Amino acid sequence: MASTSASLSGTKARSRVGSAQVDPNKRLGQILRLVILIVGCIYALFPMVIIVSAALDPANTVSSQDLFVRVSLDNFTQLFNDPTRPFAKWLANSVYVSGVSTFITLVICTLAAYSLSRFRFKGRRFTMVTVLVIQVFPNLLAIVALYLFLQNLGQVFPLKDASIKLLADPSFGSQFLGRLAQLFNVGLDSHGGLILIYCGGAIGFNTYLMKGYFDTVPRDLDEAAMVDGANQLQTFTTIILPLVRPIIAVISVLSFIGTFSDFLLAKILLKDTEVFTFAVGISIFIDGQYGKYWGLFAAAALIGAIPIAIMYLLVQRQITSGLTAGAVKG
Description:
Elements: H1 2-20, H2 24-56, H3 74-79, H4 87-118, H5 124-134, H6 143-156, H7 161-168, H8 175-183, H9 191-215, H10 219-227, H11 232-243, H12 245-260, H13 264-269, H14 278-282, H15 294-320, H16 323-329
Helix pairs in contact: 2-15, 4-9, 4-12, 5-9, 7-8, 9-12, 10-11, 12-15
């Protein structure tokens, strides 16, 4: 017995010694991965460091800038105290336009994707192919058509700015009524028209993307709900929606970021400074031929990243969750 225990202890000791000796090739691979990770982090964070340094530098320059030599909050203070450049208004406009267009897109895409995935009707396949083919053409091809469309549409729904301001006046209405009235002003130089264009451009691709996710949900769940007495609407809201939360979260983030950071369409369709969105508004800081305020531009870019970060933090749990987790928790 003593010899057996001694041999076992000797074997364990040799195994510990062998495990302590790391393979040189494995150690070299770990070092290489660590070096690549550090280089990637530096490459990704360096532009952010430049932007933060420019935002804190009152010199309003980037080309001849030293990192964090002069630190001041003058750029941030000037952003919110310049009546000729209503930065807070631009930021609120972008959050409003992006939020409303994202909500409308999600509602329409979810209902359309559920219909295409679960129902069989005449013209279903033609609808799916048409939606896919339309997405092949870039949006730049439709800019002129969209401009003329909103120009003519504004003549049909001629809600004037004076009416919107009257509804937004606290003595007559409220800010909510003013925002609601803007939705029905769908001509040029209006948030309603811009939201209409954003929703029309996003519905096709997002519907096709969401339809593919709906197809992964087993139809047995629908049949089981029907056996329990649920109708189509109850099945959709109580069974299917909890399972497709990950794709809803992904589409909401993509739609919000895409509309919030869009510059080209908003630049063409909006002319009044008061209705500018965030991306169009901050471009004024670097549009001048002789005066380019890079410090203000960098400060505005940092503040503009906050709504996107908040949006991502709100839905990151749904993005990282899977279909199985949704089925268990739902």
